[in-house]
Amino acid sequence: MSTSHLNSKKSWLVYGFAILTYISAIAQRTSFGVAGLEATERFNANAQIMATFSVVQLVVYAGAQVPVGLLLDRFGPRILITTGAMLMTAGQAFLAISTNVPMGLVGRVMVGMGDAMVFVSVLKLLPLWFSGSRIPILTQLTGTFGQLGQLISIFPFHMILVARGWTPAFSVLSAFAFATLITTIAFVRNGDSWAHAKQGAGTHQGSRLLAALRQPGTRLGFWTHFSTAFMINTFMMTWGYPFLVQGQGIDSALASSLMSVFVVVAVLVGPLLGALTSRHPGKRSFFALGIIAGMVVMWAIVLLWPGQAPMWVLIILMVAVAAGGPASVIGFDFARTFNPPHLQGTATGVVNTGGFIGAFITIYVIGFIMDWAYKAGGSTGELYNLPAFRVALSFQLFMMVIGVSFMLIERGKARRFLAENG
Where in the cell is it found (predicted)? Predict the structure, then answer.
């Protein structure tokens, strides 16, 4: 098999346009997080219904990961990225004209299905177009570049939403997704390595899934992704913006600006973690656990702070939570290094469910607690208030205990597997 195409100019062209679609996917995914207050008014929704919008999208996303991984190993990344862009285009267009909860949920389901196909497909492209130590670094850079989509939802999308309204804002996002559909069709290719990489992909899908799950690195990757990613997804997709505005009393424009901290942290931490995991693969779990400790400490400080926390504390909280995004990519590196090429798409799909399963459970339970606190107070005053947020957001710490416990169990199994197999 010729490898002359690896690390070539064409490699970077293919990767660049695949990344553009992933940037779009992140913008589509996080758009509802900054539209939460407008959606509450548009759909006349309570906290649980608002949480349901994000939960439905996340359930679809997480539920699609294993089928997407199986399809990815069989048909290749180009078809799945194209299909994902098509679904996101249709979903955001439908959401733009939605006037009630059922219509809005249909739009988010389509967005979730399309989003589910993109990231794992871009990761699958990397070993098809690049080689050597570039792959773990590019894996981190993929997550880093994708966070530019958050800037799109935080700034231009939110500005259009406030100035022009719901339909124009979501129509613009639909147009962006359509543009990436065209560029994917024109420029993204599987490459000459695809015929070799898909050898063994004809195996029965259930057998491939079981083979990936038997690898302790796949399971370690799942729990690493679960523990590092669910907090950032909870914050960015649903509860971060309302917490800052109505829990901490921050101006809505300032809150949107503060959420750009997540992008800055991703740009700074992502390449650093990529270099560290490439140079010290045996310490990957330690890097993830260190970042998890930072997230837990900062949430504990903010939730226990008497009254509204000062701005500098909130910024440090967002830095700590944002670092979970780059740390979650370590989970995909476990999947890649513990599985043969024909199982890597399936294993990556399994890993990618972790942070989203954790997030949809957390988002929904937080919404349930917020509504319970509101009813317990006689349904008077503000639905979103600091005392209710303190109780509801504490649920995240319980979820983290579960995630880290299983992460440590699977890390022990992975180390024993490596010792037994040299």
Answer: Cell membrane; Lysosome membrane
